[in-house]
């Protein structure tokens, strides 16, 4: 019997290609469903023991439990908190390297003339995490005991008063700069490599003043033996510290600095992966131990509406616009 040769038509060829593509497309979500298959690295822009690091390590455990993999916290410190976001931008967009950052993501564009990333274009958003008030502290043996006394002292002795911060571009630097701007003084600023070292030197009496987040300062304030507190930086008093007045009510009208935190991934990270990371984040902020510890640090976890990619995107856009005006008006620059 003579074999018959049946030619393959263009239609048959294109049909086969289309079928193959469809099969690959169906395989994409299936592959995504296996994520994560290894540990996830959560990058922190500041030193171990600092406010953002404390938040990251609180969230890492319940997030890891939700994901079924360990969430490893890594500190990428330097350049005022801009090295870590730059690292994320260069990372593979597979969800295995993500970032937690505070409001420095919104202030960096105004503080730095040359920024190696665009907060509004170079990231995928996972969600907001929490809001953290700040407090103004001094060393325990500082001459002033009340805020009016503090204002009088720094105005008369500004060349002798030192003001610590967690490093160039850190929120503590911004808070300190705004304080000096509104009071009308120029103090000696002392930058550290993180909030932890700055707080240690304040308690040790090596520096005079520090404005920092309650995640860092609450234990010191509650202790009452290692530093003095002169006020909180939010418009309203804190429920956890009702006896501490705001700087606004003590004369610095409009003084409002609240540190918010968000989580980010490299641009191009698959939507399915972002959804899993967001789910893990929401599990973490509902965790009873996390809620208890955050409350002890006089901070507030965000609402479910804010703990979303869209919630973070909208908030970041608004904050970039807000701080651009504030920083330029105050003449603050990290360079």
TrEMBL record:
<keyword id="KW-0732">Signal</keyword>
<dbReference type="InterPro" id="IPR042100">
    <property type="entry name" value="Bug_dom1"/>
</dbReference>
<comment type="similarity">
    <text>Belongs to the UPF0065 (bug) family.</text>
</comment>
<protein>
    <submittedName>
        <fullName>Tripartite-type tricarboxylate transporter receptor subunit TctC</fullName>
    </submittedName>
</protein>
<keyword id="KW-0675">Receptor</keyword>
<feature type="signal peptide">
    <location>
        <begin position="1"/>
        <end position="32"/>
    </location>
</feature>
<dbReference type="InterPro" id="IPR006311">
    <property type="entry name" value="TAT_signal"/>
</dbReference>
<dbReference type="InterPro" id="IPR005064">
    <property type="entry name" value="BUG"/>
</dbReference>
<dbReference type="Pfam" id="PF03401">
    <property type="entry name" value="TctC"/>
</dbReference>
